[in-house]
Amino acid sequence: MTALIAAAAVFVLMHLLISGTRLRGALVGVVGEPAYMGGFSLASLAVIVWLSMAYGAARGQGEILWALSGWARWVQAGLQLLAILLIVPGLTTPNPTSVKQEGAISKPVSGMLRITRHPFLWGVVVWAAGHLLVNGDTPGLILFGSMAVLGLFGTMSIDAKRRAALGADWTAFAGQTSNLPFAAILAGRQPLKIMEIGWWRLLLALLVWAGLLFGHVYAFGVSALP
Questions:
Q1: Cβ neighbours of residue 168 under 8 Å, at least 6 residues apart?
Q2: I want to staple 88 with a disulfide (CB 3.0 to 4.6 A). Which of 50, 76, 141, 205 is the partner?
Q3: Nearest to residue 142, comparing CAs of 4, 10, 49?
Q4: Whether residues 172 and 207 fall in one domain
Q5: Same-domain status, 23 and 105
């Protein structure tokens, strides 16, 4: 359990205290942008592997904090669909909040960005929340709770970085969009145009969700089917 706590803490802190602060700029100033991005990506991958192995070792050893009935698995399946519908379009839509895509700030707001300017990270939050629902033990809380925390605070960290780097362009973009999903639509700043997201993105998301739903037992040894 100690290894899992350490891995989760390192994973969260390296993103919020390195990539999300002035320390990133200092490191880039020393080694350059390409070297920083390469090193940070490798470090992130290494910590993800460590986190996965630590969770695998800790599964079944922690205290049961909650155990919900069978309905929770249906809710979990629905939450995973929502998560993938955010994640896949989020990864495939030009977005000034994404890595190396600051130039997209000049494009009109459309598609998924009408719903949230952080679709990928909110997808991670929903994904983590769904897994917390059906993994009510201590290892589950540490792993999926840390992912949810990183997703939530990551949106704020990115907003702060882009505000500092893009100035008035970011202010205009942020004024048209929202961090919280659907907030800009409910406030009347954006219309909801689902098909503007792109039919192929939505179809791809459905295929990924179905693949994960039926393939989860083979990839992770636990069935995701309700």
A1: none
A2: 205
A3: 4
A4: yes
A5: no
What is the token pair recorded at 128? 């983590």
Task: Answer whether 90's CB lies under 8 Å from 115's CB.
Answer: no
174 shares a domain with 148: yes
The per-residue pLDDT for range 18-71, each reduced to its tens digit, is: 876 677 778 877 888 788 888 888 999 999 999 999 998 988 788 888 888 889
Whether residue 42 lies inside any domain: the answer is yes
**Domain shared by 52 and 86, yes or no:** no
Per-residue pLDDT tens over the stretch 79-110:
999 999 999 999 999 999 998 899 999 999 99
What is the domain range of residue 20? 1-58
Nearest CA among 120, 80, 66 for reference residue 97: 120
Q: Is the same domain home to 3 and 32?
A: yes
> How far lies 149's CA from each of 81, 89, 129, in Å?
20, 22, 10
* Reduced 3-state DSSP string for the chain: CHHHHHHHHHHHHHHHHHHCCHHHHHHHHHHCHHHHHHHHHHHHHHHHHHHHHHHHHHCCCCCECCCCCCHHHHHHHHHHHHHHHHHHHHHHCCCCCCCCCHHHHHCCCCHHHHCCCCHHHHHHHHHHHHHHHHCCEHHHHHHHHHHHHHHHHHHHHHHHHHHHHHCHHHHHHHHHCCCCCCHHHHCCCCCCCHHHHCHHHHHHHHHHHHHHHHHHHHHHCCCCCC
Per the domain annotation, does 225 fall within a domain? Answer: no
The reply to whether 203 falls in a domain is yes
